Amino acid sequence: MAAPKVDISVDEQTGAWSTGGMPMLYVPRHFMMGVMRTVYEALGEAAADQHFYKSTADAAYRWCAMEATQTGLAGIDVFHHYMRRLSERGWGLFDGSGIDPLNGTGRVLLRHSSFVADALNTQTAPLAKKTCGFCAGWAPGALAWVSDTQRRGWRLHGRERRCAAEGFDVCEFIVEAA
Ligand SMILES: [Zn+2]
């Protein structure tokens, strides 16, 4: 096992955690997935996907804006930095190298998805459904920030095309023109 690659600071007075000045929470995976599952049960799959898409895309956009200020990175480098940070924070290993920097479309691969790991925790056979819809907004949200800051005018939408929970080797997200 290796130590985390993300620097974590703890405020001695408040106990609050942060990384690069951004407040963070460290929670058990089962807690996060349990919260997500209850929303899916309450809203239904389609409405929950829509709800999470907007909130995760907005969060990705905000993260890129804050992180660009902290690091001095710009443009598509911030998107790749985001993919790397998600990977370093335990969500799974994201690879955004399949995104075309000229138009923001393409594919993002996710290996060892935490969503798949949690879903298959008590299963031995592949599921008949995808499990990573929660994070479909991350890549397009980050790419929207790239587009806005570079005046590209990209209108993008993302979705999970294949999921390792269905028996594929990796999860594959498509980002395409909306
Ligand atoms: Zn998946």
Q: Using DSSP, what is the number of strands? A: 7
Low-confidence stretches: none
Rg for CA atoms: 16 Å
Beginning-to-end CA distance, first to last residue = 41 Å
Describe the 3D structure.
This protein is of the alpha+beta class. The protein has one domain (25-177): Trafficking protein particle complex subunit 3 (Muramoyl-pentapeptide Carboxypeptidase, domain 2, 2-Layer Sandwich), CATH 3.30.1380.20. The protein contains five helices and seven strands; from the N terminus they run βββαααββααββ. The strands form two sheets. Strands 4-5-7-6 form a four-stranded antiparallel sheet. Strands 1-2-3 form a three-stranded antiparallel sheet, with no helix packed on it. The radius of gyration is 16 Å and the shape is globular. Zinc ion binds next to helix 4.
List keywords for this structure.
alpha+beta; binds zinc ion; 178 residues
Architecture blueprint of SSEs:
Layout: E1 9-10, E2 17-19, E3 22-24, H1 29-43, H2 45-71, H3 76-88, E4 93-99, E5 106-111, H4 114-119, H5 138-150, E6 156-162, E7 171-177
Antiparallel strand pairs: 1-2, 2-3, 4-5, 5-7, 6-7
The chain binds zinc ion (ZN).
